[in-house]
Amino acid sequence: MLIDTHCHLDLPIFDSDRQTILKRCQQLDIKKIVVPGIDAKGWKNLLKICHGEPSLYPALGLHPAFLQHHQLSDTHKLEQLIDQEKPIAVGEIGLDYYLKELDKTQQKSLFEAQLNIARHKHLPVLLHVRKAHDDVISILRRIRVTGGIVHAFNGSFQQARQYIDLDFKLGFGGALTYQRATRLRTLAEKLPLDSIVLETDAPDMVVSSHYGERNSPEYLKDCFNTLAEIRQEERSEIENKITNNVNSVFGFIH
pTM (2 decimals)? Predict the structure, then answer.
């Protein structure tokens, strides 16, 4: 069994064939898909879609890249919805310093507010981090949460070890399938297997075999196959371990 730990299957680009995709995922033994939130206006639809599909698991959060869409009251709504809807995580949250137009102080304030909610609700978090790993690690040391996943990890080995020490798993996806991604592949090879989980980030970050197309959770198999090629362990051992890794984050029962 494989689990996609990060997939935006609630977005309108999937409205026409979401059910078909989910059927194909089941046939491929992709049994669970975590669907992270982006902004408050999308939470209602995300929850509706997840409630109608037993394989979909919602997370709720305010994505840093959409800073201009968020209101001060959104964190209060987030806290209330967590109590009502019981999502499995707070996310997608974090810091994005790649987008220069985003105010760093505002990002940090929003990030810390959501971390505090996650801590109080005893929920893991799904982290979006671009060009900001050191700041995120520093904040996580100060606001301790019950672990989570660093989505689309692309930091250094040293930063990876620091996340692992904070009880985080590291997410690898479509970028891993490109031969030119040598640094990322080395990370996936050298990191402890019990720190790795897989994701697609569909509809973004498409795998190499579908370059130029919309990404899909069914392509998680490509990510797994690449990881199995890179690592020395048996395929069955890798599959069992990364599934157990996800279960340890979200409390899934086999």
Answer: 0.97
